[in-house]
TrEMBL record:
Entry keyword set: Repeat, WD repeat
PROSITE patterns (alphabetical): WD_REPEATS_1, WD_REPEATS_2, WD_REPEATS_REGION
Swiss-Prot/TrEMBL WD repeat ranges: 1-18, 24-60, 66-107
Protein name as catalogued: WD40 repeat-like protein
Cellular component terms per the entry's GO annotation: transferase complex
Highest taxon listed in the record's lineage: Eukaryota
Cited PANTHER family: WD REPEAT DOMAIN 5B, WD40 REPEAT PROTEIN
Pfam families tied to this protein: WD40
Length: 227
């Protein structure tokens, strides 16, 4: 276990016995967040001194000091492959760092409030960043292309302003799965009709065209006839 404290240190503990281990010193203010890399070889700590520090988990030897935030760093997390670190700060930004070089690769500054939580989700559709700040939860798509890293906002929810208690969305059409989930989280009731797939939409159009041909519905309604 790695724990951070107001005494400005990170302490390591044996999770089975509770025996204390290494004490990692270097930060100059309270430790606000500590996390292990996915392979357990490194530790990252975020502090009120506005820096993220890397440590060797076995020896305690300090690594890079990641500087750039202008306020306390409340949350740090590694990417699933351990190659990147994401840090969230009271300066209302998320910074993306390269573990191998210690360089800042990107700054996300449209998070609407002090960062309280940052999480990563790796799916078959790519890597996604989830941020919690103020009253907002936001999901971002991360695109890592050689020398350029891009972050695109997908959706945002404001907890304090989105309230639909008592609303009925039964059989409503046109809502995406994400919007359905958000509305139900805010108190909406009912089961909306999910959007048609391209195949279903094509089949429906073909069926309508067949019915129209049987009923001999003119296809040039509204078109003036020539004398």
């Amino acid at each position: 276990i790695a724990s951070g404290s107001g005494d400005k240190t990170v302490r390591l503990w044996d999770a089975q016995t509770g025996v204390p281990g290494l004490v990692l010193s270097g930060h100059t203010d309270t430790i606000c967040s500590v996390t292990y890399s996915p392979n357990g070889h490194q530790i990252a700590s975020g502090s009120g001194d506005k820096t993220v520090r890397l440590w060797d988990a076995q020896s305690g030897i300090p690594g890079f000091i990641l500087s750039g935030h202008t306020s306390s760093i409340w949350t740090v997390t590694f990417s699933p492959n351990g190659h990147r670190i994401f840090s969230g700060s009271g300066d209302e930004t998320v910074r993306l760092w390269d573990v191998a070089s210690g360089q800042c690769l990107a700054v996300v500054d449209d998070v609407r409030g002090s960062l309280a939580s940052v999480a990563l989700s790796a799916t078959l559709k790519g890597l996604f960043l989830i941020t919690g700040s103020g009253n907002f939860v936001r999901t971002w798509k991360l695109i890592d292309e050689e020398d350029q890293f891009q972050v695109h906002l997908l959706w945002s929810s404001a907890h304090s302003s989105l309230s639909v208690s008592g609303a009925l969305i039964q059989d409503t059409q046109g809502l995406s799965k994400i919007n359905i989930q958000l509305l139900k989280q805010r108190g909406a009731a009912g089961d909306p009709t999910l959007p048609l797939s391209l195949r279903e939409a094509g089949q429906r159009l073909a069926s309508m065209a067949f019915v129209a041909s049987k009923l001999k519905v003119p296809t040039n309604i509204g078109t003036p006839r020539e004398p």
